[in-house]
Amino acid sequence: MAKLRELDVELVVVDDTLREQRIARDLLRVDRSIIPVNLIYPPNYPEEPCILLEGLISPGDALKVLARMELIQNGSSESLASLPTP
Amino acid sequence: MKLILKTKLPLVAVMLTVLAIGLANTNAQDLFLKDQFGDPGIISDHDPVTLSSEFKITTGKRTGILAVTAEIAPNWHVFSMKNTKGPIPSKISVAESKDYKLIGKFTADRKPELKSEAGFDAPCEEFEGTVTWSAPIELAETVDPKNLVIEMVYNGQSCVTNGGCIPLTLDVAGKFGGFDDQLVAKPDFVQAPVKIETFQPKGLHATIKARMVRAAGTDEPISPGDAIKLEITATPDTSDTWHIYSYSLEKTQYMSTIVGFTETNGWKVKGPTVSEAPEQGEAFGVAAFYHHHPVTWTFEVKIPDSAESGKSYPFKGAIGFQTCTDSGCDAPAGVTFEANIPMGRASIIPVKWENSTYGTAKKADKAELIDKNSGTDPLPVVPAHQSDEDPQNKESASPVLVEDTPEEIEAMAQLYNPEQKIKYLVSTEMDENPVGSGGTSSRNQTTFWTAIFGAFVGGMLLNLMPCVFPVLGLKVMGFVMQAGSDPAKIRKHGIAFTLGLVVSMWILAGIILTVKLAMGQDINWGAQMGNPYFVCAIIVLLFLLGLNMAGVFEIGTSLSSVGGKAQQKKGYSGSFLSGVLTTLIATPCSGPFLGAAMSYTLAQSAFIAMFLFTVFALGISAPYLVLSFFPALINKLPKPGPWMETFKVTMAFALFATVAFFMQAFGGQTGVGGLSWLAMALVVIGLAAYFYGNWSESSVKPFKRWTFGHIMPALIAAIGVWMCYDAANQVSIVSQIHNVGGLEWQKWNPGKIEYSLAKKKKIIWVDYTADW
After folding, report:
1. Is the CB of residue B158 less than 8 Å from the CB of residue B76?
2. Summary mean pLDDT of chain B
3. What is the ipTM of this complex?
4. I need a surface site. Which of A64, B514, B597, B644 has the fewest CB within 10 A?
5. In DSSP terms, which residues pair with B49 in a beta bridge?
6. When comparing pLDDT for B580 and B691, which is higher?
7. A41 lies in a domain?
8. What gap in Å lies between CA B149 and CA B127, rounded to an integer?
9. Across the A/B interface, how many CB contacts are shorter than 8 Å?
10. Are β-strands B401-402 and B745-747 bridged in parallel, bridged antiparallel, or unpaired?
11. Which of residues 562-601 of B touch A (CB under 8 A)?
C-alpha cells in the first residue's frame, strides 16, 4: 500500500457488480471475461505492455509488478531528463 | 431493604415525625437563634438526630437485615457515610458479639443530596428528614432472635443549614422486628474491575473504546430508574495527523461520525454531548468539523422504573465514521457495539466491538439530540461543487471513490476504442519479457488455436473411452465389409460417417448454446464463472461425472445397444446414421470431456463455440477417417481389455482435479465458510451417487431398487443440492480490499485509462471487480 503511494499510482476501480455490457466489452480487450482482473499500465504504455493479474492477488505478485513499473517509471523519466533542452 | 421501609417504617416514621415536630416547636426556633450567634454546642441535651433500629430475619434462615433509621430535625442534616475531607461522615459501629456478625456494609436507602456548604471546598453529601441505613447480618446458630439486642454506636456530625455543626455520638439498640420471607439481603456492592477494550476498527486510522456507566456514580449498581451514560471515545492516529469528523446528523459532503442504536429495549437515548469542540477545517472543498485529539461522545440512556432487577438487558448500536489526513481519507468505516446490562449487578459495563459498515450506523435509529448545536456541526454544510450524482449512486458513493465530471467523461469517451486490444503480459510472463523487450500483443489467437488443438485431441481421445473404443474397430471393419475390397468405397463410407458425426455434434452444440442464450443475458458466457451459483453447478456436474468414471455409478448403459440396430442398415446413409449414433452413444462417455471443455468453450462467442464443436467432432472421427483410408492399420490397434478400465478411472482423477480447481474459484467468491459447506455438500452428493449406483440395477428387487436406488438417493441429492445453493449464498468480502490504506480510487469510465495515460504519465492500476 505504501508502495502505491510512493509511486503515485493512479487507482481505478471498475465496478462490474451490475454486469454491464460496456465493462464486459472492455474486458474482452484483454481476452478476459472472468473477474477479478487487475491491469497495471506502465506510464509509457503502449511502449511497455500492461501486466495482467487474475484472481486474488498475493502481495508478492503486486510488489513484483510494482517493482517493474517503478523501473519503467524511473527509466522513462530519466530519458526525458536526458533530452537536450532548447 | 426497600421492602422493610414500605411495610413497617411508615408507621414508625409518622410517630417519630410527630415527635420531631413537637421537638422542633419547642427547640428549633430557639436553636436557630442560638446558632446565629455561632454557639450550637449548648443544645446537647436535645440531639437533632433521633435513632431507632430493628433487624429482620429471613424466614427459615439465619441471615437478615439490620436497619438503623435516623430522624433528623427540620433544618438539620447529617452526612453520608462517604469519607471525605469535609465534614465528619456518618458511621455506625456494631458491638462485637459471637451471636451475630455483619456480612456487609451499611448502605443508605436513598441518595444523599449534594449541597455546597460554607467552609467546605467540595459539595457535601447530606441527608435531611429521615434516612435509613441497613446492612446484611448473619446470626449464630444458637441464638434466638427474639431475645437478641444488637448494640451499636452512631458517630457523625449534624449541622444546621448554612449554620454551625455539632458532633454526634449516639447509642442505639437494634431489636428483633420479625421474620420475613421476602427479605433479600442486598450484598455489598463493589464494582469489579472492568476491562474496557480498545478496538481498532478495520479501515480506520483511529482506535475506539466505549463503556456504559451509571450516571450517578459507580458506588451502586445500575438499577431500574437510573440514568446511564454511554461514553464513546475515539482516538485518531497521530502519526500522520489523522482526524475524525464530528458527530452530525446533517447531510455533509464528508462522512460525519454517526451513532445509531439497533437495540435499546425502548429506552430513551439522548445525546451526544462532546468532550471537546470540533476544529474547523476543510474536506473535499467544503468546511468540515473534526477532531484531531481523543474525543468522547456521551449519550444518556434512561432506564425506566419498569425494568426488572436481576434481568440482563441488551444494548446495541453502530458507529459510522471516517478518518482523514489533510491530503487523503480512509474509506468510511463502521463498527457495531454490543453491551449487556445486568440490572442491579454492575455499575460499569464494557462493550464488545465488531467491524461493520458505515451504512449500518446510517440505517439505525439515532439518539434524540439534547441541543441541536451541542458538540455537533455548528454550520450547515455548503457543497463546493455541484452535486451531479444520480440518486441511485448517492447511497453507495463514498468520497474515496472519486468520480469524473460529465465533461471529463465526455472527453474520455472520445479516446475510447473498445475494439482496440490492450497490450499486456500475464504475471507469469513478466520474467521472460523484461522491461524494454516491448512485450507481445494480445494473444487472443494463441488461446484460440490452443483451444482448437485441444478440441481436436480431446475428440480423438474420446475414442479411447470404453463405450466408444470397442465400436471403433467394429465400425471400420463394417466399412471394409460393405465396400468389399474397393478402397474408394471405404473412403466414402468414412466420409459419410464423419459427416454424420459433425452434423449431430452441431445439433448438440446448437441445443446447448440455445439453452445458454435463454439462460443468460446478452453477455459472454464466461462471465458466469464470476457467479458462485454457476461455479457451484459446474463443480457438482464435474464431481458427478468423476464419480461416474470412477465406477461409483453408471449412466446411459441402455443407449449403447441402440447402435447395433443402425449398423444393420446398408449404404452410405447407414454410415451417416452410424456417425450420428456414435455421437449419441459417445455423449454419456464424452460428458466428462465436454464438461471440462465446456467451461472454455462457453467463454467464447457462439460462432467460435460452434467452430470448436466442429473441430471436436472431427477429432472424434479422425481415427475412423484414417482407418478408412488405411484399412490395414485396424490389425495394429490395441485390443479392448482391462487397461481401458484403468484408463477410465485414471481420467476420473483428472476430473476430480478439475473439481478442485473450480473449488478454488468458488472459495474466492464465497470465503472459507462457503467453500467448506460446498465440500460437505459434495460428500452428501457422493453418498447419493453411491446408493444410486448400488441399488438401481435391474437385478435388484423392485421394492429395494425404488427405495434405496431411486427415492433415497434423490432425497440425499436434494439435500446436497440445497447445501450447494446455500454455500453459494455466502458472500465474500473481497470488495472490501478497496477500502484499506486510505487510498483514493477513481471510478472507471470508457476511455478513462487512455485519457489518464495521455494526460498524467502515471502508473495506473485498474481493478475490475464486483461487489459479490
Report:
1. yes
2. 72
3. 0.79
4. B514
5. B72
6. B691
7. yes
8. 27
9. 198
10. parallel
11. none
Fold of B206-385: Immunoglobulin-like (2.60.40)
**Helix and strand tally (H, E) in chain B?**
17, 29
Residues 3-62 of A with CB under 8 A from B: 4-5, 7-17, 19, 21-56, 61
Q: Which residues in chain B touch residue A43, judged by CB atoms under 8 angstroms apart?
A: 757, 761-763
B88 neighbors B79 (Cβ within 8 angstroms): yes
Q: Are the beta carbons of B540 and B689 closer than 8 angstroms?
A: no
Report the alpha-carbon distance of residue B338 to residue B502 in Å, rounded. 66
Q: Which residue has the higher pLDDT, B482 or B629?
A: B629
The one-letter amino acid at B615: V
| A16 in any annotated domain | yes
Q: Is B423 on the interface with A (CB under 8 A)?
A: yes
Residue A22 belongs to what domain range?
2-81
**CB-based burial, A33-42: b 16+ in 10 Å, e otherwise:** bbbbbbbbbb
User: Do B530 and A23 meet the contact criterion of CB atoms below 8 Å apart?
Assistant: no
* Structure letter (DSSP) for residue B240: T
Q: Are strands B401-402 and B91-94 parallel, antiparallel or unpaired?
A: unpaired
Contacts A58 to B, Cβ<8 Å: none
Cβ atoms within 10 A of the Cβ of B435, count? 15
Nearest CA-CA distance, residue B615 and chain A, Å = 21
Whether pLDDT at B738 is above 80: no
Cell output for A42: 506502465
CA–CA gap between residue B77 and residue B166 (Å, rounded): 11
DSSP bridge pairs for B366:
B260
| Three cell numbers written together for A61 | 505478485
**Sequence-separated (6 or more) residues with CB below 8 Å from residue B93:** B152, B153, B154, B155
> For residue B113, what is the enclosing H or E element?
strand B113-115
**How many independent structural domains does chain A possess?**
1
Q: What grid cell was written down for B650?
A: 485414471
CA atoms of B256 and B398, how far apart (whole Å): 12
Q: Any residues with CB less than 8 A from the CB of B635 and at least 6 apart, and which?
A: none
Note the pLDDT tens digit of each residue in B39-89. Answer: 444 444 567 888 999 998 888 778 888 999 999 988 888 888 887 777 888
Measured in whole angstroms, how far is the alpha carbon of residue B575 from the centre of its chain? 63
What cell does B739 get?
Answer: 477500502
Q: Which residues of A touch B436 (CB under 8 A)?
A: 48, 75
Give burial (CB, 10 Å; 0-12/13-18/19+) of A48.
buried
- Dig out the grid coordinates for B698 from the structure: 435391474
- CA end-to-end distance (rounded Å), chain B: 59
Give domain status of residue A76, yes or no.
Answer: yes
Measured distance CA(A64)–CA(A56) in Å, rounded = 15
Cis ω before A36 (30° cut-off from 0): yes
* Nearest alpha-carbon partner for A46 in B83, B712, B425, B532: B425
Q: According to CATH, where is 2.60.40 located in chain B?
A: 206-385
- Residue B52: DSSP 8-state: E
With residue B681 as reference, give the H or E element that holds it.
helix B642-695
Place of cell 464435474: B542
Closest CA to B86 of B29, B159, B146: B159
> Does any domain span residue A86?
no
**Helix residue ranges per DSSP H, B520-570:** 532-549, 560-566
Query: Residue B434: CA atoms inside 13 Å, Cβ hemisphere, count?
Result: 1
- Which cell numbers in the block locate residue A78? 530519466
Separation of alpha carbons B16 and B21, rounded Å? 8
Asked whether the beta carbons of B230 and B208 are under 8 A apart, the reply is: no
Residue B383 has a pLDDT of 31
Interface test with A, best of B768, B769, B771 (most A CBs within 10 A): B768
Closest CA to B208 of B389, B353, B60, B74: B353
Q: What is the band of B195 on the pLDDT scale with cuts at 50, 70, 90?
A: confident
